[in-house]
């Protein structure tokens, strides 16, 4: 397969900083060929690999790499480095390990690359520009994407309404234009885009034809800017049902499944049920947030950051309080996050359980209030009301772990919830409510 045309994120940097999170928190599925290749490498206890458990365990009809008792991959060394990489080079590792945190998707006659913000180095924009490692990502693309990718159809615009790649490109350009308007804070940018995309979703199919599409989007874009001149125009709180549905979305994001949780014991299932019910009610204290190793290493276990000896229980009401202020530096984080997900087509179609474009974008839009909600809880656990940049980065790294990668989002009820919030005109209100300031 020749080198494909590949669109890389413009504003994103990345390099691995050996936090070990992906080697502890992700299930690494492998092919039969990869299993055979690793077995042929001749690992033993002399190499530091545990010999009291198998290297591989069944995963569906295939296999996954086993984990140690502490949750670490069996090939993860105490220094945080991969033993396979150290002994045989990066190319000897399974594709899933080499690919992370990239995600590569077809988009007509080209491919797009996105990144997973569950990696703290992605969130913090650390390392060289992704554009500088084009050859590396292209090589991965040749392994990931089949040669027939140019025949991949575009996802529907909305359920049952076919779309095409040229109109998809135009739509995303207008969305990115709205989200890049540096004259206003990011939450208002997103509210405006949600307003005109919701109107687009209700337009007659004739108005969405290739002939009229560009003019319609331009008119809706301009109308939304006039309708929402400033943040004060969207002060209405979301209704109780919308808040409940948003918390259910949060519960899905905060379900931090790991290799250890694959056992799905009765105790684990019961805990998930109880936590789900608590998120639905929104009463009492919030269940303990996930404590991913990568997030802990990057944002907690570092000089100048203190953590209470006993983390207090945080009431749901604490996550509803207004922000002390909206900091201008936060705009960069969210602009970059949305740019990477949108340009990489990492929110709809095959990359997101078959969601139509608009349903996928509505899900993506909720990542802003979800991050702010989670950051509020993290700050409250340190007895603070003022959010810091690291609160937002840690929150985003925590919840992006599941975005597009947890099968709960494939359930019809998950997609129906998103579409219902849009139909009730509550998405913009949720964004406004959780980004409001005192």
What does this structure look like?
The protein has 438 residues and is mainly α. The chain has two domains: 6-151, no CATH class; 233-435, no CATH class. Helices cover 45% and strands 5% of the residues. The chain is built from 18 helices and six strands. The chain has helices at residues 22-25, 32-39, 83-88, 95-99, 120-123, 134-144, 165-179, 186-201, 210-227, 240-253, 266-281, 293-299, 328-343, 357-365, 367-381, 389-399, 412-423, 427-435; strands at residues 6-7, 29-30, 56-59, 62-65, 102-107, 110-115. Strands 1-6-5 form a three-stranded mixed beta sheet, with helices on both faces. Strands 2-4-3 form a three-stranded antiparallel beta sheet. A hairpin with a 2-residue loop joins strand 5 and strand 6. Helix 12 packs antiparallel against helix 16. The longest helix is centred in the middle third of the chain and has 18 residues, at 210-227. The relative contact order is 0.14. The model has no long low-confidence stretch (mean pLDDT 91).
Please report the number of helical segments: 18
Structural class computed from helices and strand pairing:
mainly alpha
In round numbers, the mean pLDDT is 91
Largest sheet: 3 strands, mixed
Domain count, please report it: 2
Portion of residues within helices = 40-55%
Low-confidence stretches: none
Q: Based on CA inertia axes, which overall geometry fits?
A: globular
Strand order of the largest sheet: 1-6-5
**What is the CA-atom radius of gyration, in angstroms?**
22 Å
Number of strands: 6
**N-end to C-end Cα span:** 56 Å
The helix-strand sequence is EHEHEEHHEEHHHHHHHHHHHHHH
Strand content: 5-15%
């Amino acid at each position: 397969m020749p080198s494909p045309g590949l669109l890389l994120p413009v504003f994103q940097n990345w390099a691995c900083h050996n936090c070990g999170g992906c080697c502890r928190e992700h299930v690494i599925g492998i092919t039969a060929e990869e299993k055979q290749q690793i077995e042929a490498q001749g690992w033993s206890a002399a190499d530091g690999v545990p010999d009291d458990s198998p290297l591989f365990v069944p995963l569906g009809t295939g296999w996954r790499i086993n984990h140690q008792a502490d949750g670490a991959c069996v090939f993860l060394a105490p220094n945080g480095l991969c033993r396979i990489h150290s002994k045989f080079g990066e190319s000897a590792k399974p594709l899933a390990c080499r690919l992370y945190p990239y995600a590569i998707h077809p988009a007509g006659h080209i491919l797009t690359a996105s990144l997973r913000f569950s990696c703290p180095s992605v969130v913090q924009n650390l390392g060289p520009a992704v554009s500088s490692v084009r050859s590396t990502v292209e090589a991965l693309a040749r392994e990931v994407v089949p040669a027939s990718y140019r025949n991949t159809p575009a996802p529907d615009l909305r359920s049952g309404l076919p779309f095409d790649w040229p109109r998809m490109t135009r739509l995303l350009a207008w969305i990115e234009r709205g989200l890049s308007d540096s004259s206003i804070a990011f939450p208002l940018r997103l509210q405006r885009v949600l307003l005109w995309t919701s109107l687009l979703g209700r337009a007659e199919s004739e108005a969405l034809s290739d002939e009229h599409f560009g003019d319609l989007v331009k008119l809706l874009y301009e109308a939304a800017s006039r309708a929402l001149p400033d943040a004060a125009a969207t002060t209405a709180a979301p209704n109780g049902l919308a808040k409940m549905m948003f918390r259910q979305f949060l519960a899905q994001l905060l379900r931090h499944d790991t290799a250890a949780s694959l056992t799905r014991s009765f105790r684990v299932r019961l805990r998930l049920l109880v936590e789900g019910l608590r998120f639905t009610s929104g009463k009492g204290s919030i269940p303990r947030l996930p404590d991913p190793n990568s997030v802990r290493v990057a944002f907690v276990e570092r000089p100048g950051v203190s953590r209470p000896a006993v983390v207090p229980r945080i009431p749901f009401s604490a996550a509803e309080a207004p922000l002390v202020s909206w900091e201008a530096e936060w705009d960069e984080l969210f602009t970059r996050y949305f740019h990477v997900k949108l340009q990489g087509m990492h929110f709809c179609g095959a990359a997101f359980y078959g969601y139509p474009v608009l349903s996928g974008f509505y899900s993506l839009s909720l990542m802003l209030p979800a991050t702010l909600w989670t950051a509020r809880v993290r700050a409250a656990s340190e007895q603070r009301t003022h959010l810091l940049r690291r609160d937002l980065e840690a929150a985003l790294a925590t919840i992006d772990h599941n975005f597009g990668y947890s099968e709960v989002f494939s359930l019809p009820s998950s997609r129906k919830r998103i579409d219902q919030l849009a139909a009730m005109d509550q998405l913009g209100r949720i964004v406004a409510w959780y980004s409001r300031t005192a």
